[in-house]
Amino acid sequence: MEGIQILSIVTFFPLVGVVALFFVDRENVVLQKTITLIVTTVTFILSLYLLIYFDPSRADFQFVERYKWIESIGAIYFLGIDGISLFLYLLTTFICPICILSAWAYIDKYVKEFLICMLVLEVGMLGTFCALDLLLFYIFWELMLIPMYFIIGVWGGPRRVYAAIKFVLYTLVGSVLMLVAIIFNYLYVASQTGEYTFDLLKWYQVLPPFSMQVWLFSAFALSFAIKVPMFPFHTWLPDAHVEAPTPGSVILAGILLKMGTYGFIRFAIGLYPHAAYFMTPLIIALAIIGIIYGALVSIVQPDVKKLVAFSSVSHLGAVMLGIFAMNIQGLEGAMYIMLGHGLSTGALFIIVGMLYERRHSRLIADYGGIAKSVPILAAFFSVTVLSSVGLPGLNGFVGEFLVFLGAFRVKPLWTILSATCVIFAACYLLWMYKRVMFGPITHEENKYMKDLDLREVLMMTPIVFLYVVMGVCPNYFLEKMHTSFDAFLKGYEKRIAINVYEQKVQPLALIRGGK
Amino acid sequence: MFDFIVLIPLFPAFGAFLNGIYGVFRSNWADKPSHTIGIASIGLAFGLMLLLVYKMVSVPIVLLALVPALGAFLAFIFGYRWSDKLVSIIGVGSIGISFILSVLAFWKLIHLEPEARFIEVVFYKWMISGDLSLDIAFLLDPLSAVMILVVTGVGFLIHVYSVGYMHNDPSYPRFFAYLNLFVFFMLILVMANNFPMMFIGWEGVGLCSYLLIGFWFEDDYNAYAGNKAFIVNRIGDFGFLLGMFLIFVTFGSLNYKDVFETASRVLSYNGFTVTAITLLLFVGATGKSSQIPLYVWLPDAMAGPTPVSALIHAATMVTAGVYMVARCNALYTLAPISMAVVATIGALTAIFAASMGFAQRDIKRILAYSTISQLGYMFLGVGVAAFSAGIFHLVTHAFFKALLFLSAGSVIHAMGGEQDVMKMGGLKGHIKKTFIVSLVGTLAIAGAPGLSGFFSKDEILWQAYSSPYGSVFLWAIGVITAGMTAFYMFRWLFLIFFGEERMDHETKHHIHESPNVMLVPLYILAFLSIVGGYIGIPESLGGKNHFHHFLEPVTRYAYKIEGPHYSHALEYALMIVSVAVAFAGFAIAYICYVKNPSIPVKFAESYRNIYRWVYNKYFVDELYEFLFVKGTLNTCFGLKAFDEKGIDGAVNGTGKSLYWSSILTSKLQTGYIYHYVWGIVLGLLILLF
In chain A, whose CA is at the least distance from the CA of B638? Predict the structure, then answer.
């Protein structure tokens, strides 16, 4: 696709909305929302270009753009998409218009600022998924943090400031370590090849010695593990979710968490295979603890949002298990759970938001029997719950099946343990669903709750449609991932066969700038 | 030529789709414009879906599904409203078309050579990942042909019955949408050609069971029962899932064909792997088919509407486990330990559940325990490698148990919703037609000679004795259960239809026979319960056992061991014993509940403790509640506290300690010169020494 810089266009298209919003009168809230909705929708439509012209038979990066950027330090502007990032990129463009719709009634103050935050956030997310220059990646990565901080801190619930600060500080601890690792690796690459560059593909060519890999991997992994979040770094998530407004939660669960898992595949494992191999038992153990722990803690949460947040810990644990199973089923399954989780957990948060808009409560005990008064909401809720439970025929099952199948080939006994989450998932979600939706109506206010209006139906329909498509025709999605994941695995196996254990390192020499 | 079998499950799916959408949105379509737009968009979506399906299979019969879409458009042009009538037409009609197609498929199948009766129709590629390759593909062989006939046939009758039974229910479209969806998943289950696709159906029917048990969700108990069913089933599904993984790791494939054909080469007889696989799969079966230890959900499942109990919790879904074991006969016969487990669990469940049926008072719960017990029989059958006998009993049981449940529904209908048999009695004069069909059903399940239950049950009992996997103990348990079955079923019949009339005056006044739309399905099922056994008359009674021979090709990969041969005389003798025991059961029931109704009361009084145990189902539910539910919840609460205090405490503690340490260090910056001088002096001193 020479000639069209489609990735740049799509990634930065939301900024058009930001500019447009500056010219809209502050009072004209509807116009502001409409503009944002149109801009995000156009972004989505433009991004479909990627889906159509993506060549599934190529393993390398496609739609590549490469320009000089900061020549003095060798940073370049380098974007590209492969089968690993394609669907995450599309998921982002797909979720964003839905987020704007979900904010339609929820956000009632500083609307303009909110919309600008959302648009900037979208740029950050899209950039993160397609940046192939480490410095560029880091900038996009940090770019997401700022609007998210405001979204939680300004438009959030009663404890929003606490949650926002916790979110930012926690994430920052990880990303600063990652920055140190990036700089370190940058110097190392320069010392080995003589070229100062942040180009990911060139970094792939240089394998640091083992003792150095362990440290670099740990820095990257910590940053990503906080983002995922893996047990025991997960406690920021429930707080952030509970306090964030609906669109914030949707973005957080739908996209931001996947940055962590994506980072593991692309950077942590890709750059430091030996360390990844060495750390696998630890990470698998944490993943399995996360799967079961998240599910168990989720069962007894009194707050629906918190319950869903802990279910994310459990699901993302399964993603990590799949990634570190290091076989094709595990990896593709992990990617599939990421996509499925982005949809179904996003939708769960949207539905909780709808309930909150109507009753101003997220506590399960304040509901009960409302399936009678809001049948349409109940229908969408039930499909979403079932998709999250992993019912075959909907999206959740495919990923879970592949992940556990892949993990079973490597660690059968551990998988038996972690697969119990299919039972617990049914427990926490269906029990919650039962207490919210079924039974007699115990609160008078719930009797005349308003059912979904057209906007809300339009918002949910594409998501439900995708559940079914992803469950019934998973091959359409999987076949676009095969080549990339195959290449990833082959590369990984080839590289860990290289002996890096005996190379001597002198870390201080790097800092002093000499060889 | 067989491409059209793809449509057999698709039609119910269409029905579920159309009625489901209507059911969800209809209260919003009160005004005409939104009704029109709604229907038009459904029609459009439906048309697109059909187009896609048509592109994939290119069978013109797909276009039959256009009929409802066309109907919708016509209705909209002429201003008709989508009504309950249209709902029933779509709901019943889609199953009807499936049934016709199934008959057609069956007809074409029996005109092939027995060896050629394995037809695989690939619909599309479902999931490919590395060496894993799964299709959505349908298998038509004798076993699945029998199953689709039962599912669509009995399903069709029950749909017709529901039109009458669910009449005037406010959620009428939702009911038919769920029921159609169930048939769809059940057909996927039995027609799959690989394990994961069977698992789609396997979990899908569990979902529909959940939705339908909790159909009247305003009542908390119904919703609870639905949840219980789903979660208990999930425990079983967990085993099934692991079984599939182990199969994949062992065989590198999950297609039936690859697995069963190579089973005897890949696996060693009585090896660890095959035993593990079969036992894991059997865990799934105990959940779905309600066997010990996962049987607890089925009695509570009776909270659903009665047609649901008949279709899902008697005739079709709960037999999925039996079907699965029969389908995997090539694996099970390689694992004698698993076979023994299957047969023993089956026999134990049969007798245990039958004993629990003794003291129940709910008209449907008695039938529920009877279903569990009969399912135990089927597992006893397949567990002694008598796969065709197990499936034979599955078929006849589908007839007579559906009949019994629907009769119970007719009784409940007549009694205005009353379900306690102690408040019935003497109904035979009031609802004669229902009484006659109930009598037929009871005779069939009790094993009265000549009726369908007799043939299938006796074949299982004979195999339990004579098969190389069988033993005299299994046979004895089976025979005792037969006697118990006769006892509690006649108790059920006598309490409802005989004796004094125990209902109150108001109810008595309203007793009325059900409408024809409910009675005609009952007649057909009664007819089938009588003659259904003639497809499998054993050779010792001069029959040909067509059924057995028809199913024979299914077991061609089974590992065969030669058992001892017994004479027909022994078979007759055992048959007479079982009939005699069943008759004894009938006689005791007659004495206790017709001749002298004071006996059971006296018995309950003098053996109060035993009665209490049986009446409370041996307190198994309470035990599970205490062990598993309470145990899990306590763990969860503990972990939640740990999360908030421990982990998050550590996180916040880090923050707090930083805060306090900076407050402390900021104290150092006092602004007084002499403090700093002291600091410098101290530092110098430290450096010097």
Answer: A297
Task: Please give the residue of chain B at the shortest CA–CA distance from A419.
Answer: B238
- What confidence tens digit (pLDDT) does each residue in B482-511 have? 999 999 999 999 988 988 888 888 888 888
For B220, which of A329, A391, A440 is closest by C-beta distance?
Answer: A440
Of A232, A408, A420, the CB nearest to B238: A420
How many angstroms separate the CA atoms of A244 and A470, rounded?
Answer: 28
Residues of A in contact with B42 (CB under 8 A): none
Cβ–Cβ contacts within 10 Å for residue B222, how many? 22
Q: How near does any CA of chain B get to the CA of A374, in Å?
A: 10
pLDDT greater than 60 at residue A409: yes
Give the distance, in angstroms, between the CA of residue A89 and the centroid of all CA atoms in the same chain: 10
Report pLDDT for A515: 40
* Shortest Cα–Cα distance, B231 to chain A (Å): 6
Q: Which residue has the higher pLDDT, B11 or A219?
A: A219
- The answer to whether the Cβ–Cβ distance between A422 and B241 falls below 8 Å is yes
Q: Please tell me which residue of chain A has the smallest CA distance to B241.
A: A401
User: 3-state DSSP call for residue A67?
Assistant: strand
pLDDT at B535 over 90: no
How many whole angstroms separate alpha carbon A221 and alpha carbon A198? 19
Interior/surface letters B34-62, b for 16+ CB within 10 angstroms, e for the rest? ebeebbeebbebbbebbeebbeebebebb
The complex scores an ipTM of 0.91
Check residue A392 and report its DSSP letter.
B
Residues 405-434 of A with CB under 8 A from B: 405, 408-409, 412, 415-416, 419-420, 422-423, 426-427, 430-431, 434
Nearest CB neighbour to B230, from listed A327, A369, A426 = A426
Average pLDDT on A63-74 reads: 88
Residue B18 lies in a domain: yes
Give domain status of residue B160, yes or no. Answer: yes
pLDDT tens-digit series, residues B24-73: 777 776 676 777 777 777 777 777 777 777 766 666 555 555 555 555 55
Structural domain contains residue B206: no
3-state secondary structure of A113: helix
3-state DSSP assignment of residue A314:
helix
Write the residue in A297, A401, A426 that is nearest to B643 by C-beta. Answer: A297
B437 touches B525 (CB < 8 A): yes
Partners of A427 on chain B (C-beta within 8 Å) are 231, 632
Burial of residue B124 (CB within 10 Å: 0-12, 13-18, 19+) is: middle
- Listed in sequence order, the residues at least 6 apart from B659 whose beta carbon sits closer than 8 Å to its beta carbon are none
Domain total for chain B? 2
When scoring B17, B127, B231 by the number of chain A Cβ atoms within 10 A, the one with the most, hence best to mutate, is: B127
Structural domain range at position B654: 619-688
By CA distance, what is A486's nearest residue in B? B130
Q: CB A439 to CB B632 under 8 A?
A: no
Query: What distances in angstroms separate CA B210 from CA B205, B206, B298, B314, B620, one per listed residue?
Result: 8, 6, 11, 15, 22
Is residue B627's pLDDT more than 80? Answer: yes
Position B277, amino acid: I
| Chain A nearest C-alpha distance from B267 (Å) | 18
Q: What is the DSSP letter of B564?
A: P
- What token pair was written down for A168? 């930012």
Cβ–Cβ of A475/B223 closer than 8 Å? Answer: no
Terminal C-alpha separation, chain B: 100
Query: What's the mean pLDDT in B582-609?
Result: 85
CA A231 to chain CA centroid, Å, is: 16
Whether B547 contacts B392, CB under 8 Å: yes
Task: Looking at the complex, report in whole angstroms how far the Cα of residue B42 sits from the nearest Cα belonging to chain A.
Answer: 13
CA–CA dist B422, B317 (Å, integer): 30
| Per-residue confidence band for A504, with pLDDT thresholds at 50, 70 and 90 | low
